[in-house]
Amino acid sequence: MEIGLSSPILESEFNRAKELKAFDDTKTGVKGLVDTGILKVPKIFIRPLNELGHNSDSNLNHFQIPIIDLHGYADDKHQRQEIVDGILSASQNWGFFQVVNHGVPTSLMEGMTKAVHRFNEQDDLKKELYSRDRARRVRFHSNVDLYISKTANWRDSLIFNMLGPDPLHPQELPIVFRDITIEYTKHVKNLGDILFELLSEGLGLKPDFLKQMKCAEPCNVVCNYYPPCPEPELTFGSPLHTDPVFLTILLQENIAGLQVLHQDSWVDVNPIPGAFVVNIGDLLQIISNDTLKSVKHRVLVNHMTPRVSVACFLTTLYNATNPFGPIKELITKDKHPIYRDVLMKDYSSYYASQGVDGKSALDYFKL
Ligand code: OGA
Ligand code: NI
């Protein structure tokens, strides 16, 4: 069928599809566009006015997301209890916290962000790894939902599907980030195990409960690159969303951009050098029967500096045959299950069908 260009709506849709394809075909992402010296944000990235509201409703509050100091968690019973209480309260009230004294060497964290910068400066390697095929366990692309969402985001992503029952072979990682990625992931996975222990205790469960549930079986590492933007008020690095995983451990560079929705205001997650940002994902909200909260967040871009973040998503296998639902031990006479049991595959396809556009997928799985 020929597209009738006489209709203004069809014409604009046609142009948009053409523009998306042309952008995708460059295989160099948003940074590639910026490198051509553009002074305006291309139309495919411009959000409708009602979705923007960057400055009017943010930064005018005194909130700060909780900071958890993990020092002493392993060998001081009293301190461990304080840490457990702090993590539980942060996860209930904010869904977000930052951790310090977590045991991951600062040099490794710096090495990882440097490697991501280095990668994004190599167009040939970007083109070689550019793919939307999920079967490729090391891939680069811009906008996971490019052809589904209404507006594209100012962000490029390098993705590794790292651990799990069938670990990624080191040879599959390009040499520019091979050693650092393997070392970094090992440490962050270990931190994930510690956090799952503390969260289990906070929920009144045995320390290894969440680990036994295989909450961190695979770990997907997404290295985000947010290039500087000529008109940052017109677009987002990431629009509001929740994470479709159990837990996210995020390393952010010393540049602001991430914001969390708290009591109807956007609160900046101020970077603390050497800290990780941790947030509860949808799956942990489901299995904790709404005790732990998966909270909406977004990323703003800026005029001046590229920003790198490395998100380690702790999740479960896409084709896991065990459904997950509210933990039986947390269900009492007064606390009925809020969600039905769901297979990861069904949850993921529902989340993906919504596009990353800010609606929570959780409601769909409520009883
Ligand atoms: C994400 C995310 C925040 C950031 O990747 O889900 O929220 O600062 N990232 O990059
Ligand atoms: Ni997120």
TrEMBL record:
PROSITE patterns: FE2OG_OXY
Keyword Aminoacyl-tRNA synthetase tagged: no
Cited Pfam families: 2OG-FeII_Oxy, DIOX_N
PANTHER family the UniProt entry points to: 1-AMINOCYCLOPROPANE-1-CARBOXYLATE OXIDASE HOMOLOG 1-LIKE, OXIDOREDUCTASE, 2OG-FE II OXYGENASE FAMILY PROTEIN
InterPro entries (UniProt xref): DIOX_N, IPNS-like_FE2OG_OXY, IPNS-like_sf, Oxoglu/Fe-dep_dioxygenase_dom
Family: Belongs to the iron/ascorbate-dependent oxidoreductase family.
Protein name: Fe2OG dioxygenase domain-containing protein
Organism placement in taxonomy: Eukaryota, Viridiplantae, Streptophyta, Embryophyta, Tracheophyta
Domain Fe2OG dioxygenase: start-end pairs: 215-316
Gene Ontology MF terms: dioxygenase activity; metal ion binding
The organism of origin for this protein: Aquilegia coerulea (Rocky mountain columbine)
Entry-linked SUPFAM superfamilies: Clavaminate synthase-like (SSF51197)
Domain of life of the native organism: Eukaryota
Keywords: Iron, Metal-binding, Oxidoreductase
